[in-house]
């Protein structure tokens, strides 16, 4: 059964982490999805995972591999003889540096379809589409079917194997329409975001790019800079790693290929922020060079306090104001079935899990399951789990 106001079928161009996650989410909402990727293996994995059917015919780069698929000589799922369906929506989930071209190609190739992209930087693609109109490659009516969007959810891994249908649940999803954008295209883009469980935020491409420079691109740079210090670190130092390091470096594992495109496409906005960071860093270095000088400790305290103030402004779950959840930490054996057994008991105690994370301490065969709950429920949960024989710390 099709979700309300998402015209089917939905064609997803680019079946990596994001495209496959969108396919999985839409499929579980009952939508009919087709998949296309110039990498035959990325497309085949996405199909196998259940994100949709292969789109018949070759709409990717005219590579030998895709020609072979058209001739029906690979896995047999696609043949040149099959009639290509007419998509109602095209979701472009290709890397940022080709997303603009794939958007333009989709607007021309599929005359009735709403076309949206989900690339991490919006201004550059908007400018490519506008330039195609000025250059006569697109009509204004074709360009009006395009909506730039950006789900603020992802992972530090790429490719379809890392995909999750629930990736977008409760995440912000930015929709960047222009005055000329057709209202139908905007409502289709917003409905897709909602069907996938996200919360829609409307803004201009310029405001979006300035925002993500700070809330997404700076954190990536910071994680990479911190982690790059670890390259020559002796193993005995790394063995002491705790949550401080893990919390600040998870996204340092991200794909360099993707991030070189994101950072290059948003360089002016990122630079503004980096200048500010450089000032703070210079101030800290000067202070640390003479840590006992009068005022030095106050300077350090101020820097940490400024961090406290900024951190306190990060919104909480579902975009709500930050809320301090209480954490109940349970020690579990590092064996299959332990986490589900704890969660079963949490459910039976009638306590809602607001957040969940698992930590392993180096060299120990146990894990620490951190269950975030509303502060008023902490004691109830601690008592209930202790009564069930769990070790709560
Ligand atoms: N990774 C994240 O956390 C994240 C979050 C939000 C948005 N995005 C955006 O989503 C898009 C995809 O990122 P990803 O993380 O899924 O990357 P990915 O590397 O996992 O997947 C990209 C896929 O696009 C395919 N591709 C390459 N050229 C193509 C073309 N011309 N036409 C169609 N497909 C093509 C690749 O073969 C690959 O399978 C990017 O624009 C990225 O900025 C990423
Ligand atoms: O959490 C992650 O691993 C992400 O990659 C998420 C994240 C982000 O910065 O929030 C990264 C880049 C995307 O454009 C959108 C989302």
Automatic annotation (TrEMBL):
InterPro entries: 6-PGluconate_DH-like_C_sf, ACT-like_dom_sf, ACT_dom, NAD(P)-bd_dom_sf, PDH_C, PDH_N, Preph/Arog_dehydrog, Prephen_DH. Pathway: Amino-acid biosynthesis; L-tyrosine biosynthesis; (4-hydroxyphenyl)pyruvate from prephenate (NAD(+) route): step 1/1. It is an enzyme of class 1 (oxidoreductase). The keyword ATP-binding does not apply. Its EC number is 1.3.1.12. Keywords: Amino-acid biosynthesis, Aromatic amino acid biosynthesis, NAD, Oxidoreductase, Tyrosine biosynthesis. It catalyses: prephenate + NAD(+) = 3-(4-hydroxyphenyl)pyruvate + CO2 + NADH. The keyword Amino-acid biosynthesis applies. Gene3D superfamilies: 3.30.70.260, 6-phosphogluconate dehydrogenase C-terminal like domain (1.10.3660.10), NAD(P)-binding Rossmann-like Domain (3.40.50.720). This is Prephenate dehydrogenase.
């Amino acid at each position: 059964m099709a979700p309300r106001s998402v015209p089917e079928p939905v064609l997803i161009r680019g079946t990596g982490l994001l495209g496959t996650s969108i396919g999985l989410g839409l499929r579980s909402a009952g939508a009919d999805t087709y998949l296309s990727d110039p990498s035959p293996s990325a497309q085949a994995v996405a199909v196998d995972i259940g994100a949709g059917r292969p789109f018949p015919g070759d709409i990717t780069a005219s590579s030998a591999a895709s020609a072979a698929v058209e001739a029906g000589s690979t896995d047999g799922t696609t043949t040149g003889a099959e009639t290509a369906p007419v998509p109602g929506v095209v979701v472009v989930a290709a890397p940022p540096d080709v997303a603009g071209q794939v958007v333009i190609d989709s607007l021309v190739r599929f005359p009735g379809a709403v076309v949206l992209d989900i690339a991490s930087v919006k201004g550059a693609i908007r400018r490519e589409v506008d330039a195609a109109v000025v250059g006569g490659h697109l009509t204004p009516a074709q360009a009006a079917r395009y909506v730039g969007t950006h789900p603020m959810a992802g992972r530090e891994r790429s490719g379809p194997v890392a995909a999750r249908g629930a990736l977008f649940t409760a995440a912000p999803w930015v929709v960047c329409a222009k005055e000329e954008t057709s209202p139908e295209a905007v409502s289709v883009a917003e409905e897709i975001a909602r069907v996938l469980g996200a919360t829609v935020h409307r803004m201009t491409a310029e405001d979006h790019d300035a925002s993500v420079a700070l809330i997404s691109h700076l954190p990536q740079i910071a994680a990479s800079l911190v982690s790059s210090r670890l390259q020559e670190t002796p193993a005995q130092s790394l063995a002491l790693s705790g949550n401080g390091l893990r919390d600040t470096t998870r996204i340092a594992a991200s794909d360099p290929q993707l991030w070189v495109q994101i950072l290059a496409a948003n360089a002016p906005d990122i630079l503004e922020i980096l200048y500010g960071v450089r000032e703070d860093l210079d101030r800290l270095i000067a202070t640390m060079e003479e840590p006992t000088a009068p005022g030095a400790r106050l300077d350090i305290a101020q820097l940490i306090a400024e961090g406290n103030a900024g951190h306190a402004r990060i919104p909480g779950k579902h975009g709500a104001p930050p809320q301090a959840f209480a954490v109940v930490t349970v020690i579990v054996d590092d064996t299959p079935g332990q986490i589900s057994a704890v969660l079963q008991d949490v459910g039976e105690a009638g306590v809602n899990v607001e957040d969940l994370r698992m930590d392993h301490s180096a060299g120990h065969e146990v894990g620490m399951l951190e269950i975030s709950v509303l502060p008023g429920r902490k004691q109830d949960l601690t008592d209930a789990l202790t009564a069930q024989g769990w070790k709560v710390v």
